[in-house]
Amino acid sequence: MDLAFSPEERAFRDEVREFIATHLPPDVRRKVQAGDPLGKDDYARWHRILHERGWVAPGWPVEYGGTDWGPVERHIFQEEISYGWAPRLLPFGLQMVAPVIIEFGNDEQRARYLPAIHSGEEVWCQGYSEPGAGSDLASLQMSAVRDGDDYLISGTKTWITAAQWADWIFVLARTERSAKKQDGISFILVDMRTPGVTVRPIQTIDGGREINEVHLENVRVPVANRVGAEGEGWNIAKFLLEHERTGTAGIAGCRQQLEALHELLAHEKIDERRLHERVAQVEIELEALAFTELRTLAAESAGKRPGPESSILKIKGTEIQQAISELALDALGPYAEPHVAPKYFNYRKTSIYAGSNEIQKNIIAKRILKLP
Amino acid sequence: MDFTLSPEQLLIKDSVARFAAGDHAGREHWTTFAELGWLAIGAPDDLGGFGGPLETLLLMEQFGRGLVVSPYVSQVVLAGTILRAAERIDLLGRVVEGEERIAVAYEEPHARYDPARAATTAVRDGDDYVLSGTKVRVLDPTTAATLIVSARTGDEITLFAVPSDAPNLVRERYAAEDGHDAGNVRLSGVRVAGSTVIGPLGDGLALLELGLDHATAALCAEGLGLMSTMLEATVEYTKQRQQFGVPIGSFQALQHRMAEMFVELELARSMAYLAATTLGEERDPVARRRGISAAKVQVAKSGRFVGQNAIQLHGGIGMSEEYKVGHYFKRMTIVERLLGDADYHLARYLASRGVAANAAAPAAVA
User: Fold this and answer.
1) pLDDT per residue over A261-303, tens digit each?
2) Domain B205-365 has CATH 1.20.140.10
3) A326 to A44, A231, A354, B346, B349: CA distances (angstroms)
4) Going by DSSP bridges, is the β-strand pair B102-105/B156-163 parallel, antiparallel, or unpaired?
């Protein structure tokens, strides 16, 4: 057992750090550091820079433009992104639909979609949740009715981040009404410019505008846009949810936030003992979670796929993110409102998205503890 | 990074696991431990020693899993670490062979776990020292022929190897709630030779802190084992126990509680390993203290949550003396507080970050 990073891994970390320090546009860094919302162009610029360096898609196979990094290098890279105040690129194309197309798609689909995802030319969003289907995703109602070589798709998808910027949306739609609700669901790629697609913004409680409702009314989509077999959508969705959970812990980002909190406490000369104790408790839990993530990575390096254990990272990582935003709120006391309150409001989303923390507990109960 | 165990480590883990799973209750196993080499973990090579904090973790986790009642933490980890750091190879050799048992008496009334707050005095008298004071909550004093006693020699603290049958030394033994041996030690003018000083004069606190950090890491590993068994027993029980015509483990309220217990257990596991790593690699005492105290805070918090909920989810049977989970809970409750509870270690953690014990001075924070 050797729990230290190797000299090669440390050299890699230095290389990434140096690259971010010299290539990240200063105005983007300032926005990330201040916690200000990023615009489409901010993401696009950073995307192009990483694309040119060949680092935009660490998780992809090399033949499609991925890196040959192992789990430890990918982890180091993500850490350095946070430490360098670089944006996390939108995951919907790079980390969600691309792995699905690589795993379940055909050669034409790989050739058509992957290069534009890689270069950042086409922006994607995710159409999963519906007004009546949240945690119970399998009860989704969006319908895709076969009409010659096309599907006619109708229904409403909601809570969609970046839909206002997206060129494409991937949706789960019902291609067949069957007895079992998990059957008859298909995974379909829809061009946002197709007639019948409308995007309505949803303002969130922090005043932000990052999510939307997307309505589809008789939208005509070629059958060739379906990924995988008809009715295979539920399998793909499960594959994707597991993919989505790794990396949601956001540990390096939490370290940054805690560091900022320490600076704040020092700068504002805040000396309430209890506040310092609460910060210390969160800090300790974060260290425990960071080491848990390393154990998960080591298992991955040894060839194990990310499994239900990643639910621990989702639950605890988001609880810690929320706890830090809460501590910042309490630390600033009467001055919290214009500065840190919006972030506190916004971060309530973390324990809801990517499979709510209650759903994660169900997963642990069923799949790890094997409870009935 | 590599998290796999070496063949030697696997061997230790398996042999301890076999022992811990067997019938070990109520008997003395020190000779067996010596024969199996378990008393030599962390000792120097020329004493036949091997391994270090990670091997101690593997052993203690299994001791926790099997609820092994043993003075291992106090007489091997705590005493052994002090003797090794003080280069008392003569005494350490006898400990490794199982020939001599040594306990450590450092805690005092009102000291609240802090080894620096010793009031016991050692007054020079010719070539001798005369020790006076009271030590409380001494771990495993009954079987110890020698007690390592901390006492003030002026402003500094010095450690002395005191024969436990010395005149004017009284051991008041009591059985702790977890069946372990514990006691108070009263020293009313105990005369010892100058040669009993362990390590350099006045270096006692640094030696104690080092020994206590190693022992605390070992307790964290034991806690991990205790929690593992409690969670497994709870999951198993709720799958069997039928109410309202179904296994109670099918109720979501209970499932979520057990999922939370699992998360707490895994955080504690990480911190126990991190503690062992810190001891193996960290040479800076401030960073070492921070790492160990962080681990104890997490293990104490996780242990309390897992333990209390193990009892709760078992219902009435969890309260019964004849069922095992209650015994694990009692030991966990004591492990939580031994060598410093969560509050003590949180304060120590903050101090290592420069936040003072009482009101945190802004200057110290910056």
Assistant:
1) 988 888 888 888 999 999 999 999 999 999 998 888 888 777 7
2) yes
3) 31, 43, 21, 20, 22
4) unpaired
DSSP assignment of A336-360: HHHHTHHHHHHHGGGGTSSS-HHHH
Q: Where in chain B is the domain with CATH 1.20.140.10?
A: 205-365
Using only C-alpha atoms, chain A has a radius of gyration, in whole angstroms, of 21
B38 three-class SS: helix
Separation CA B18–CA B6 (nearest Å) = 18
Best A75, A263, A287, A309 member to test B by mutation, with max B CBs in 10 Å, is A287
What one-letter code names the amino acid at A31? K
User: Hey, which residues 65-94 in chain A have their CB within 8 Å of chain B?
Assistant: 72
Q: pLDDT (tens digit, 9 = 90+) per residue, A20-30?
A: 999 999 999 99
Residue A163 C-alpha, separation from nearest chain B C-alpha, in angstroms: 34
Best mutation target, A6, A263, A278, A284, to test chain B (most B CBs within 10 A)? A284
For CATH 2.40.110.10, the residue range(s) in chain A are: 122-231
Q: For A7-89, CATH number?
A: 1.10.540.10
Level-2 CATH architecture, domain B103-200: Beta Barrel (2.40)
Phi, psi of A369 (to 5 degrees): -85, -10
Check CB contact under 8 Å for A2 and B2. yes
B7-99 CATH choice from 1.10.10.10, 1.10.540.10, 1.10.569.10, 3.40.390.30: 1.10.540.10
The pLDDT averaged over each successive group of 10 residues in chain B (366 residues) is: 86 96 87 95 95 97 97 98 96 96 97 96 97 97 97 97 98 90 97 97 96 98 98 98 98 98 98 94 89 98 98 96 95 97 96 69 38
Q: Do B353 and A298 touch (CB under 8 A)?
A: no
Interface A-B: count of C-beta contacts within 8 A = 134
ipTM of this complex > 0.95?
no
B309 touches chain A (CB under 8 A): no
A56 touches chain B (CB under 8 A): no
Right CATH number for A122-231 from 2.40.110.10, 3.40.50.300, 2.40.128.20, 3.30.450.20? Answer: 2.40.110.10
Whether the pLDDT of residue A247 is over 70: the answer is: no
Every domain range in chain A assigned CATH 1.10.540.10: 7-89
